[in-house]
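chain below, 295 aa
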Amino acid sequence: MDLFFEQLINGVALGSLYALFGLGFGIVFATLGILNAAQGTYASWAAIVALAAADQYKLPFIPALLTGVVAAGVIALLVDQVAFQPLRRRGKDMLGALITSIACWIILDSLAGTATGHNSLSFPRGTYPSTMYHLGTIPLPVMQIITIAAMVAVTVGLHVLIRHSRFGAAMRAVGWDQTAASLGGVNPRYVVIITAFIAGSTSGLAGVLGGITTHNVSFMLGEGLMLKGFAAVVVGGYDDVRGTALAGVALGVLEVMTSQYLSSGLRDGITYALLLGFLLLRPRGLFGSLTYSRA
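prediction:
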């Protein structure tokens, strides 16, 4: 029974990373109408920058973490304004934005590979909290606690922002129709800029925490998060951050339990079978609606 609860906690912590990434990915899709293939590189770059801040510049854990998160937000903002804003002005469709995002992904991925020497790096011990707590006889690393707490805090914060604030109302209006939102007094460009930064920062937080907990900081880091984060968005519903968070955690638990009790070779297959099932039977996800999207 202890093994079950230990793996359950591991699954919740892993799923929290998927949920964090999915939150950023879903905001971009719901508000900006972009299926952004470059989103994963924001997570990779956040981890790379945070590692440099902690290892080379000797910043403490929290400042190094925030440096990586802000860097991801700035990169996301630059990509949006340089690559996607011209497309929005010309009224290009989602396919054009997807192709553009793939080009941005390849460019940023190549730069990240150069920055890491195409190696898998890791945060040195002492640059992050490594205390081990115990829940009875079950080990509970402090980084798992931080990851789960960060996911809960970001989910609650984004839900309050989107559903219970004036800026959130502006985000929903822009997500529905930018022209109508502009006529209603909303500045779509301002909303897009802030949204891109928030989305990039959220995915960046997943990248830094994932790089620490998996001891893997590389240009490939964001790709795994991208696939699982996308699954969390589809299963949970891209227009409800609570659904995305719940689905991300559920996917993490499902993966860990599948590896423990069935076969590690089945973990990805079961995840994507679930994703396919939702795409076919309920494409809006468990908690999705038609009220916050142009799609």
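Confidence is low (pLDDT under 50) at residues 290-295. The chain has one domain: 2-281.
thats it, cya
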